[in-house]
Amino acid sequence: MLLAGIAGRARGRPVFTLLAVAIAAALASCFPVVFGGKSFVSPSNGARCLYASFPTLPGSAPEKVENPKMSDVGAMMWAHLPYSVLEHRAIFRDGELPLRNRANSCGVPLLGQGQSMLGDPLHWIPICAGGAAWAWDVKFVLAKILFAFGIGLLVRAAVGRLGVAVLLAASSAFIGFFAYRFTHAAFFSLCYAPWILLAWVEIARAPAWRAAVRWAALLLAANWIELNSGTAKEASMLIAGLNFAGCAALLLAREAWPVRARKLALTAYALLAFLLLSAPCWLVFLDALSRAWTTYNVPRAYQIQPALFIGLFDDLFYRQTMPREIHANPSANFLVLSGVLWALVRVRSLAANRTFLALALAALPVGALVFGVIPPALLVRLPFVGQITHVDNTFSCVLIVLLFPLAGFGLQACRERMAAPGWRGDWAMTLLLLGVLAAAFFGSTQVEARTANSLLRETGALSKSPFFIGYATALFLAVMLLPDLTRRLLQRSPGALISTLLVAFGLSAIHFRHAMYDATTFDDYVMNPKERADFWVASPAVESVKSRLSDPARVAGFGEVLSPGFNAVLGLEAIAGPDALLSPYLRELIEAARLPVIWEWRVFFRKETTGMLLPFYDALNVRYYLGTPGAGPPAVPGLQAVGTGDLDLYESPTVWPRAFFTSALGHYRTADEFTRMIWEADRRPLAAVQEGAAFVGNLPADLTVRTVVAATGYRLTGNTTTFTLDAPSAGVAVLAETFEEGNFRVTLNGTSVPYFRVNHTFCGVAIPQAGRFIVRFEYWPRRLTLALWLAAAGGVLLATAAAWLRHPRPAAATGTIPAKPEVRACLTTNP
Predict the structure, then answer these.
(1) Of 789, 776, 772, 783, whose CA–CA distance to 745 is shortest?
(2) pLDDT by residue (tens digit) across 719-730?
(3) Which of 89, 164, 558, 714 is exposed most, by the fewest CB atoms within 10 A?
(4) In whole angstroms, what is the distance from residue 341 CA to residue 336 CA?
(5) Cα distance between the two ends of the chain
(6) Separation of CA 291 from chain center
(7) Whose CA is closest to 606, among 561, 539, 540, 553?
(8) If DSSP codes are grouped into helix, strand and coil, which group holds residue 771?
(9) How many of the other CB atoms lie within 10 Å of CB of 418?
(10) Rounded-to-integer distance, Cα 336 and Cα 330, Å
(11) C-alpha angle 50/323/42, rounded to 5°?
């Protein structure tokens, strides 16, 4: 009776029930973070920040460091978390839009990276908190609640059954994706994505177009939040893939074409409004992308071998093909696999449901992309897709969302058929399909081919870990036995208590590995978040640097000290950073100077090579260097040891100032030639322009007789750099911040003036005569004004639609009631 009463209340309040289940599942899956003081953004999750060893921040207690198994934990600690700190400073300290990140790579776009998350309402929690770890943890947990809630609503809307929606909502908080993207912006991209498809399915189900208006509003909002979720690849492909699937569901809906046409017009209006409103996000990003250097400049497409398809439902199968079982790709879980297999067995009857048919058809091309059916030679020719590179994990995100409602159809078909005579035949076919997937996996990973006559590459048999053998056995047994055990339980067969325990055990076997734990005997296979850190406990060495920075300058760390990107949290500037879009001129200069680079973006400072490379570091305005302390600061050629404590501190006495005046302007043809000019110069600042670069003026080209005057009176904000020059003659003002064509507004004593590229990667302004000049650079992306006008047009579209919908309709005014029942119902509910 108690269970029946609970079930009755749940059916009476389905939305509340799904929300409660989502909250409970998310809290359970994140138990150490919610209740144990652990954190998604703990440096001990595996990302060095300040110190080269762990604990990597001052004030942090020693603890066992998590092995992330190549899950990209650095992206959050070195990019996204620092972005939230920069956004807080820009908004609350400087009163500006956070458009530029001056802390990384001598200045890079911030809004233009397409990863700022500024339009995500949840992101304002860490922004307002200044990037605090607790605020990021709140955002992660709320995002997972939104994911589970969205999956539940989506499955209920598509399948029409609350029970299967509750089951999959709870299950969705325990999927392999959350280990693959343990602490990464793609976490949010996936979590927001189900709401796009939910809006489309509800629009398709609506009795008339007016009843679909609120779902069109959700469609606009869901796309907006997805675009601002913090990724470019995952978010854009989720937007494209799920809108395509949703549109297919609407086109295939069983209703008259005039009704569908009106709904399509409504969704087109909503999507047009979305495109206009979001122009400041995508237009500025596309412009920055068109002129940037990225690690994706060379088109390539990584995909997954079809024989590994079972890994889509548990990532540990993928990981058996990787050294040390490191993460390879995201996954759902085996409950989703069970539902998908039952859907395949009942596909002929399920195809009569147009929503199922649309989602299945939409999933096929996505699966073909992920699993190599579509050849990479074709993919690399496609605009934008060719630069994604990680086709496998990017489109797996789309596939994971589509698989949940498809699994819902399969699980519901299994439930409805349990009393039918042919149920055991369906069960046998499901097990046969499971056997095919298992055979494909084990057959491809345990054979060793004769390479002389084989078309296969010689890889040899891949060994499986003991944990995997036991875990995979439990998964297969769960998928094999859960349907029959559930059937016995629902039919109240003898042994109900044993069946209940076995069902609980089977569901636990499927889900336990995708939860978070404090410590286990199988830590290498689960997520173990570490202690929440305070990012603002003062480091004596960092405070010493700040106290010495009377004029702006950049800082570097030797070896693993001071990871580029995290320097922004500490209020320091660097010549490298993990940002996706970098200046091609800075990159070309770094390569020409032969500066050591690792991971394709990080300039790696070594004490033994600093003396040789110091002229280039000086030209890039690197003044202070931090190193791991020893018995005493060892000598570094060209640097002066100025202190030791938690870190050794060095200073370059020959560093070039951030801005300076020079009376001569050299010329060069290539980046290599410019680096020779720096190498052969007298270590004083100089200015030179590349042949073909725009410059108005006629200055001496002989650099041996140049006059150099350092700037004074600096005033810096996130978007602006202002300084004063006392020029003894006509010449050039050089600002050692990255040049971007058309993205700066420059004034000289309040008068707008042009600027040009100087010293290959920096900004220059012509000084017309002797005198005192106040030079001001303001960063304003060249497409931002147009984008804001487009956003205003989107606002007008929304206001017009809202006013029109509130206006009394002629049919209602004259008392004429349309004959169609769905329209009559709409008029009744939408006066």
Answers:
(1) 776
(2) 999 999 999 999
(3) 714
(4) 9
(5) 42
(6) 21
(7) 561
(8) strand
(9) 17
(10) 14
(11) 25
| Size of the chain, expressed as the number of residues it contains | 831
Q: Which run of H or E residues covers position 734?
A: strand 731-738
Question: Comparing C-alpha atoms, which of 340, 509, 328 is closest to residue 413?
Answer: 340
CB 402 within 8 A of CB 245: yes
Q: How far apart are CA 685 and CA 286, in angstroms?
A: 35
Q: 660 pairs with which residues across the strands?
A: 710, 734
**DSSP structure string for 96-145:** S---EETTSTTSEESGGGT---TT-GGGHHHHHTTT-HHHHHHHHHHHHH
Using a 10 angstrom Cβ sphere, with 0-12 exposed, 13-18 middle and 19 or more buried, the burial of residue 491 is exposed
Cα–Cα distance, 412 to 530 (Å, whole number): 39
Give Cα 210 distance to the centre of its chain. 35
CA atoms of 750 and 771, how far apart (whole Å): 14
Q: Which residues pair with 738 in a beta bridge?
A: 762
Q: Which residues of 612-634 are buried (b: 16+ CB within 10 A; e: fewer)?
A: ebbbbbbbbbbbbbbbeeeeebe
User: SS3 breakdown of the chain: % helix, strand, coil, rounded to 5?
Assistant: 50, 10, 35
Nearest in space to 621 (alpha carbons), one of 551, 564, 716: 551
Instruction: Name the one residue in this structure whose structure tokens are 């770890």.
Output: 133
> Could you tell me if 246 and 193 are in contact, meaning their C-beta atoms sit under 8 angstroms apart?
no
Q: Residue 447 contacts by C-beta under 8 Å, 6 or more apart in sequence?
A: 461
The single residue listed with the structure tokens 């049919």 is 811
Give me the residues paired with residue 774 across strands.
724
Q: At residue 4, what is the residue type?
A: A
pLDDT bucket at 819, cuts 50 / 70 / 90: very low
Q: What is the 3-state secondary structure (H, E, C) of 575-592?
A: CCCCCCCECHHHHHHHHH
Q: Where are the beta strands (DSSP E) in 628-769?
A: 640-643, 648-651, 659-662, 666-668, 688-690, 708-710, 712-716, 720-727, 731-738, 744-748, 751-752, 756-758, 762-767
> What one-character-per-residue DSSP string does 501-570 give?
HHHHHHHHHHHGGGSB-S--TTGGGSB--EE---TTSPPHHHHHHHHH-SS--EEEEBTTSS-TTGGGTT
Question: How far is residue 631 from each of residues 503, 539, 646, 817, measured CA to CA in Å?
Answer: 61, 19, 12, 90
Q: Which residue has the tokens 């890994």?
A: 311
Rounded Cα distance, 161 and 156, in Å: 5
The whole-number pLDDT of residue 458 equals 45
CA 727 – CA 742 distance, rounded (Å): 26
User: What was the pLDDT predicted at 462?
Assistant: 77
**Residue 724 parent element (H or E):** strand 720-727
- Ranges 418-427, 468-477, 572-581, 736-745: which has the least confidence: 418-427
Q: Label the pairing between strands 688-690 and 666-668.
A: parallel
User: Is residue 322 predicted with pLDDT exceeding 60?
Assistant: yes
Q: Is the peptide bond before 754 cis (omega within 30 degrees of 0)?
A: no
Residue-wise pLDDT for 620-679, tens only, equals: 999 999 999 986 778 899 999 999 999 999 999 999 999 999 999 999 999 999 999 999
| Residue where the block lists tokens 């919908």 | 805
Our measurement of the distance from residue 628's CA atom to the centroid of its chain's CA atoms, rounded to an integer in Å, reads 32
Select from 764, 587, 591 the least CA-distant residue to 686. Answer: 764
Place of tokens 């458009």: 99
Q: Among residues 118, 147, 824, which one has the least CA distance to residue 514? A: 147
Please, what is the Cα angle at 440 between 435 and 441, to 5 degrees? 100
Helical H segments across 291-333, by residue range: 315-319
Structure tokens at 577: 């950073």
Produce one character per residue of 23-45: b if its CB has 16 or more CB atoms within 10 Å, e if not.
bebbbebbebbbeeebbbbbbbb
Predicted TM-score (pTM) of this structure = 0.94
Locate 638 and state its tokens: 């060209």
Tokens of 304: 């997954």
Contact 733, 764 (CB under 8 A): yes
